Amino acid sequence: MENRNNNFMNKHDVQVRLIKELGIDFHVFLSDKKYYEDDYQKIKESIVDIARKTLEETE
């Protein structure tokens, strides 16, 4: 693993950075339908899985 400096981000920092760098706020992908808890969990799990796979590939 690379040597990390003392810079860190909290979850708000990460959210803002993703919006700035990727130009995507995840709400833009949602349609005007009713979402239930299981819909939300599936969306969240998909985003987390993609992020996890990406991080594993960079280690």
Can you offer a commentary on this structure?
The chain contains 2 helices and no strands. The chain has a domain at 30-59. It is mostly helical and 59 residues long. The model has no long low-confidence stretch (mean pLDDT 75).
Which structural class fits the helix and strand makeup? mainly alpha
The low-pLDDT segments are none
Please provide the count of β strands: 0
Distance from N terminus to C terminus (CA atoms, Å) equals 6 Å
Search tags:
59 residues, mainly alpha
Question: Could you give the topology of this structure?
Answer:
Elements: H1 11-22, H2 37-58
Summarize the structure.
Helix content is 58%, strand content 0%.
